[in-house]
């Protein structure tokens, strides 16, 4: 991203902004980091994609209770085992005034498969998307897919004509910056238009008068978003009234903020576990003093790390007991979760040291850890705690904590997974365990678009065989049994190091009504200003 002011001039003259009503309402809000791109296919990150939903839309969506609802599609049916037909909403216009048609759906699916797209793992659920008529598309899947509409919650629709006009028919990821027009400009069908974009400083949205849903509930007419990384500054802005809404509220401030009558705290468990992944793909670790081999390929080293990290201590000391310690990669609220594979690991330092010695590392080794400092709740503090804990078995961590734009650009698959040990949080947009298996656990295959969030290259053929069966199983009981078996294998393999399901922690000015979805998405459509 470039730190220069960007006016979305592409919209000038074509966009119909709402005539400001008598009761115009401006929402001023802040998050700990910035939107990483305006391109809906640049980065598979919940905060960025959730904010993009204000100006780009998908065929289907969730309501506040994560129930599947129509959006750009009014209905859909599974006409054959490998075919879904979507009937598109008529009368919808993009922000530049051009009509939304089936051609845009076909184009968007193809664009999601471009090499620079971080949404290929969504696109590969289809082998073909065919236009039947201007308002009907047929999607062919490689095998029966009982949950395709849920899996395409974040498959946002772009204008084919606009993308071709501005030479942005392919995504370039977060590294594309100003080199890709769509990273800094938008042209969606959503209820708001981006009218000013100053990366890392401010983004301004205005209500789109041409929006198809005339019953839109929110009374917000303008949004001013400003990222504020410093926790104390963000909290002070809420208390002073400078901000109407902040995400997240530092957990340690909950008690303090209750003393202010002008502030409301929103909190609930999120569908996002925080985990640590390890490079189990390279024959030699990057950023380590171990040469000629990779200690993370040894299950004894992975088990030793798991038996050293005290997730209960992290929850009590860093998370103010607001998180839910876990031993798996899916939150308790995700379809397919089972306590048998979700129980946190017990700490056993003597056993951990014994395992390190047996693996040939009695004195440990050094390794770099990648961590964001503005993405997850208390992310850098958690990484510092894990680093200290690993030191007890001789693993000397060089912690590289940086803003999420740099973090994702370094760790994500499009950038070559330049990481050896990393923090990761993943909330499946489908609210289904199958999505986590496909993206985070599946053996990584970039060409096929599989395992794109599996940054460490974990690979287990038995698990992959189960994933293939889970994708096509329509009997929910049988499907859940296979999900349980797959996550049990991953647990027994110490393939990842789970920490906890993080809590949502939001603060709002008294009178601002917010619908807090468990997936962590802030839906502007449900916000009401006093």
- Please bin the fraction of helical residues: 25-40%
* CATH architecture descriptor name of the largest domain: Roll
Major β-sheet annotation: 12 strands, mixed
Average pLDDT metric:
93
Number of helices: 17
Query: For the terminal residues, how far apart are their CA atoms?
Result: 35 Å
> Which shape, going by the Cα principal axes?
globular
| Poorly predicted segments | 1-22
CATH names the topology of the largest domain as Dipeptide-binding Protein, domain 3
- Computed over alpha carbons, the radius of gyration is 23 Å
- Count the beta strands: 18
> What is the count of structural domains?
2
Instruction: State the name of the first-level CATH class of the largest domain.
Output: Alpha Beta
The fourth-level CATH homologous superfamily of the largest domain is Dipeptide-binding Protein, Domain 3
Name the beta content range.
15-25%
| Overall SS class | alpha+beta
């Amino acid at each position: 991203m470039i730190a220069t002011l960007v006016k979305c001039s592409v919209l000038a003259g074509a966009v119909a902004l709402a005539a400001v009503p008598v009761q115009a309402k401006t929402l001023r809000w802040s998050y700990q980091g910035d939107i990483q791109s305006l391109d809906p296919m640049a980065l598979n990150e919940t905060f960025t994609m959730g904010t993009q939903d204000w100006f780009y839309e998908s065929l289907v969506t969730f309501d506040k209770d994560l129930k599947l609802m129509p959006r750009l599609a009014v209905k859909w049916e599974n006409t054959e085992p490998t075919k879904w037909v979507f009937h598109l909403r008529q009368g919808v216009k993009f922000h530049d005034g051009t009509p939304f048609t089936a051609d845009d759906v076909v184009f968007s699916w193809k664009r999601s498969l471009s090499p620079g797209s971080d949404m290929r793992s969504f696109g590969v659920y289809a082998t073909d998307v065919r236009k039947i008529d201007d308002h009907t598309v047929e999607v062919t899947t490689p095998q029966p897919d009982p949950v395709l509409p849920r899996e395409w919650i974040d498959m946002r629709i772009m204008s084919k004509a606009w993308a071709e006009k501005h030479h942005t028919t392919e995504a370039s990821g977060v590294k594309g910056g100003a080199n890709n027009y769509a990273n800094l400009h938008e042209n969606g069908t959503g209820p708001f238009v981006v009218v000013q974009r100053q990366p890392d400083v401010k983004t301004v949205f205005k209500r789109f008068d041409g929006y198809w849903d005339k019953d839109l509930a929110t009374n917000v007419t303008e949004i001013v978003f400003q990222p504020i990384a410093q926790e104390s500054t963000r909290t002070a802005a809420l208390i002073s009234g400078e901000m109407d809404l902040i995400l997240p509220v530092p957990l340690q401030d909950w008690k303090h903020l209750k003393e202010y009558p002008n502030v409301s705290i929103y909190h609930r468990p999120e569908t996002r576990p925080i985990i640590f992944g390890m490079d189990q793909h390279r024959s030699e670790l990057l950023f380590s003093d171990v040469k000629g081999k990779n200690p993370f390929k040894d299950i004894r080293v992975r088990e030793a790390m798991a038996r050293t990290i005290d997730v209960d201590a992290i929850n009590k000391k860093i998370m103010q007991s607001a998180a839910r310690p876990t031993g798996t990669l899916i939150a308790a609220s995700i379809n397919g979760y089972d306590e048998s594979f979700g129980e946190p690991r017990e700490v056993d330092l003597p056993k951990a040291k014994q395992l390190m010695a047996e693996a040939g590392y009695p004195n440990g080794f050094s390794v770099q850890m990648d961590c964001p400092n503005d993405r997850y709740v208390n992310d850098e503090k958690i990484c510092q705690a894990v680093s200290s804990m690993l030191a007890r078995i001789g693993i000397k961590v060089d912690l590289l904590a940086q803003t999420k734009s740099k973090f994702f650009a370094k760790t994500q698959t499009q950038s070559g997974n330049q990481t050896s040990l990393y923090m990761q949080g993943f909330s499946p947009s489908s609210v289904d365990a199958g999505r986590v298996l496909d993206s985070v656990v599946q053996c990584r295959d970039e060409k096929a678009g599989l395992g794109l969030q599996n940054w460490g290259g974990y690979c287990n053929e038995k698990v992959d065989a189960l994933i293939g069966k889970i994708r096509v199983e329509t009997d929910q009981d049988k499907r859940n049994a296979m999900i349980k078996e797959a996550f049990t294998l991953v647990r027994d393999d110490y393939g990842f190091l789970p920490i906890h399901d993080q809590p949502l922690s939001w603060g709002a000015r008294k009178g601002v009504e917010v619908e807090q979805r468990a997936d962590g998405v802030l839906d502007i459509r449900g916000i009401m200003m006093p």
